[in-house]
Amino acid sequence: MKRARNLPADTVAAVLAADATLAAADAAWIGRGYVRTSCRLWRCRDGSLTARLVWRHRDHVVATITYVARGLVLP
Question: For the whole model, what pTM was predicted?
Fold first, then answer.
């Protein structure tokens, strides 16, 4: 099994554009002082993608938020 890698910034923007809920969560967490530390993609059997984004708080290293979105189709 291949290991997923962090994505380039233009691909992260495409992932956020593909899911409005994910984009809203990203804006909310960044507004609360979190930094996006990871964005990874996995291909599903049906051709769609699963994305996992991770945010960490700038001041509190143990404060970590993970969000998984399934069924994404990138443009």
Answer: 0.78
